[in-house]
Design a protein that fits this description.
Number of strands: 17
Shape: elongated
Strand content: 35-45%
Helix content: 10-25%
Distance between the termini: 117 Å
CATH superfamily of the largest domain: Immunoglobulins
CATH class of the largest domain: Mainly Beta
CATH architecture of the largest domain: Sandwich
Length: about 270
């Protein structure tokens, strides 16, 4: 069988070396060879990684079905062809080694295709072609696997903060409030995920807190941190404690004065 699917699709070519089983079958083959191809509108499907994806085939009454074929065309892998013939009630596979990709149920009842526990490598095009007594029909699905990024926010205590959205797919977008002097770097990994790093610096100490906003198709996040250097934080705590001690001392002195006045007026 040709990996391109031509032999799998060539129902008549396989039967040409044999006598047709019935005149009805011969009529169906003759009608099929002269039928027009009707192409359904393709759809784009986005699925989270590690979840199940199900692709429906062109809806058509099963009583008119002659053959169905799924063309699985991942971006960086050899195409896989899965076929079903109704007259023999049998299925065949060509270059299909991944057991996660199967018919959702019995193809004589449901022609849908499923991927169990989707991976980033499953990105690609999934096309269903069915041959019926009324012609040939096609429908396709462009699969985009989404991976939520892991987020990290860290500050060095000197006015520089790093915000990171690692191993996400597609790449996340990062913005800051308030804006600072920023440098962003994207790193693409072998599994098509992308790590985005944004490092920002704020001159002076006018801003006490900054927020990193991370935008992604799987959901948005925002992370905040204080911008003050660590030694200034300790200084502020020390100033607060000293103020409390002074206030406590003043209250003690005022208390003694009030007690003294009460005693002297007796």
């Amino acid at each position: 069988m040709d990996p391109s699917g031509n032999d799998a699709y060539g129902y008549t070519a396989e039967c040409s070396t044999q006598r047709p089983r019935s005149s009805a079958l011969a009529k169906r083959q003759t009608h099929l060879s002269s039928s027009k191809i009707t192409t359904a509108v393709d759809s784009s499907v986005s699925v989270w990684v590690h979840t199940k994806a199900v692709f429906s085939c062109y809806t058509y009454p099963m009583k008119n079905l002659i053959m169905a074929m799924w063309k699985i065309l991942p971006r960086d892998k050899i195409p896989c062809i899965m076929t079903y013939r109704s007259d023999k009630n049998e299925t065949k596979e060509t270059n299909c080694s991944d057991k996660r990709i199967t018919w959702e149920s019995r193809p004589d009842q449901n022609l849908a295709l499923q991927i169990d526990s989707v991976k980033t490598e499953d990105d690609g095009y999934y096309e269903c072609v069915i041959a019926t007594s009324d012609g040939i029909f096609q429908s396709g699905h462009h699969l985009n696997v989404l991976v939520p990024p892991e987020t990290i926010l860290s500050a060095d205590g000197n006015g520089t903060v790093r915000c990171e959205a690692s191993t996400g797919k597609p790449a996340a977008q990062i913005s800051w409030v308030p804006e600072g002097y920023c440098l962003s770097v994207n790193e693409t990994h072998s599994d098509r995920t992308v790590t985005v790093k944004s490092i920002c610096h704020w001159d002076g100490l006018n801003e006490t807190e900054v927020t990193c906003f991370i935008f992604h198709l799987t959901g948005n996040k925002n992370l905040s941190t204080e911008l003050l250097p660590s030694h200034l934080k300790h200084s502020r705590l020390l100033l607060l404690y000293n103020s409390l001690y002074v206030l406590l001392g003043l209250m003690t002195i005022i208390g003694f004065i009030l007690i003294w006045k009460v005693v002297c007026h007796r």
